Amino acid sequence: MNENIKVPMPTLERLSTYLRYLQDVQARGVHTILSADVERDTGVNAAQFRKDLSFFGEFGKPGVGYNVLELQQRIARILQVHREQPVVLVGAGNLGTALIGYPGLRRHGFVIAGVFDNSPKKIGQRLGEMEIQDIQYLKEGIVKLGAKIGILTVPASEAQTIANTMVEADVKGILNFAPATLRLPADITVRDVYFFQELAVLSYCVSRAELLAERSE
Amino acid sequence: MNENIKVPMPTLERLSTYLRYLQDVQARGVHTILSADVERDTGVNAAQFRKDLSFFGEFGKPGVGYNVLELQQRIARILQVHREQPVVLVGAGNLGTALIGYPGLRRHGFVIAGVFDNSPKKIGQRLGEMEIQDIQYLKEGIVKLGAKIGILTVPASEAQTIANTMVEADVKGILNFAPATLRLPADITVRDVYFFQELAVLSYCVSRAELLAERSE
To answer: Among B27, B56, B78, which residue terminates a domain?
Structure first.
């Protein structure tokens, strides 16, 4: 793998889809797959699949296909999800609770190792296996855990301040559920999950579909 | 607006970011903005902002800028979030509960009008203002509500079957939180929110950043 190549974000996003797919087929007892199988089962074009993998070296054998277990292990290593890593969660509401209980995170090594909130009603309470900690100790908590990834499930008004604290504590990646645009140093990666945006895109596409349907009638 | 132009998905995604931004500046009492303001405050390049809007007609006045309220109303209309629309939710767990309480959905007209689950423990219980209904009545329920958008917060193993039922009930857009690839007719729009994928991308970017940091030392 050429360490200097910048991998396109859509390729990185598809890698986890491939990983999920490989786990599914392995669970079905399949040992080898072809890129055509990937296209049929995930909807990702076979050529795209091969191109995505090509960023990371040689995969599979022509005419033979891909060994399911080996490909799984290599993709897991590329994404660095082959090992456990601590993640800190700020915001112990329903969404935070949902994430802690979300299947597949722990299986892929993402261990939510610390939960913080600013509500006196929540601080000291248990959430899953953890005790909810006071957000005023967030920075020390992150440093202690050595967490490089943080999850924000707080109101938009609080997101920037908490993100700043995470960065001070050497967090390098933030999964942001707050409907706010975070302004952070260039070396910090932010992934925004914005529910309204998802629904708004659906709303547009649905109304377009109905418009076109009426026309064709 | 040319009804036949296919608008790129990233443009559609940015529209809701612009809408959020416009609401923020309006709340601050700002009446007019320039594309440079958008770039400074949202991080979206000013030229990109103008290009995104250009898909939908003429916006703003050269040298004067954009009227905040008017632009808000026009974007809301483009996305069809200027009116109320019923949304059906399947899966009354923590994530479903979080979505029902998620600020901004109702404000943008997305009314979660029906909640369904298959758990006898949950059916009949209240969730927010609603009673959780038995999933066996999902199809009739959707038809009755006239919902064109559905939200799936169920285990991966159940997602495809429930999505099929939604489509039978004339749902045209699905927000899918289940870690499963849905196979649906081409006229159905699906938006996947896959938490593991988000964390995996962060994991990759964080490990890259650390690698490059070590090198530069």
So the answer is: B78
Tally of CB atoms within 10 A around A192: 18
Summarize the confidence of residues A178-197 as an average pLDDT: 93
**Are B191 and A181 an interchain contact pair (Cβ–Cβ within 8 Å)?**
no
User: Both B187 and B90 in a single domain?
Assistant: yes
Rounded to whole angstroms, the Cα distance separating B30 from B208 reads 40
CA trace torsion B135, B137, B139, B143 (10° rounding): -130
Write the DSSP assignment of B10-48 as a string of letters.
Answer: HHHHHHHHHHHHHHHHHHTT--EE-HHHHHHHH---HHH
> With contacts defined as CB-CB under 8 Å, which chain A residues touch B172?
205-206, 209-210
Closest B-chain CA to A186: B209
Whether the CB-CB separation of A109 and A149 falls below 8 Å is answered with no
One domain for residues A118 and A52: no
Contact A123, A132 (CB under 8 A): yes
Domain assignment of residue B206, yes or no? no
Contact residues for A28 (Cβ-Cβ < 8 A; gap 6+): none
Can you spell out the DSSP letters for B63-131? TTBEEHHHHHHHHHHHTT-SS-EEEEEE--SHHHHHHHT-TTTGGGTEEEEEEEE--TTTTT-EETTEE
Q: How far apart are CA B89 and CA B132, in angstroms?
A: 10
Q: Is the ipTM of this complex over 0.90?
A: yes
pLDDT band at B195 (very low <50, low <70, confident <90, very high): very high
Extended strands (E) in A40-132: 66-67, 85-90, 110-117, 126-127, 130-131
Single-letter code of the amino acid located at B122: K
Contacting residues of B for A197, CB less than 8 Å apart: 13, 16-17
CB contact (8 A) between residue A16 and residue B201: yes
Are the beta carbons of B182 and B159 closer than 8 angstroms? yes
Q: How far apart are CA A41 and CA A48, in angstroms?
A: 14
Taking only the tens place, the pLDDT of each residue in B115-147 is 999 999 999 999 988 999 999 999 999 999 999
A8 Rama class: left (phi>0) / alpha (psi -120 to 50) / beta: beta
pLDDT digit string (tens) for A40-49? 998 899 999 9
Give the whole-angstrom CA distance, residue B112 versus residue B138. 14
- Judge whether A114 lies within some domain: yes
Q: What is the mean pLDDT of chain A?
A: 93
Per the structure, the count of domains in chain A is: 2
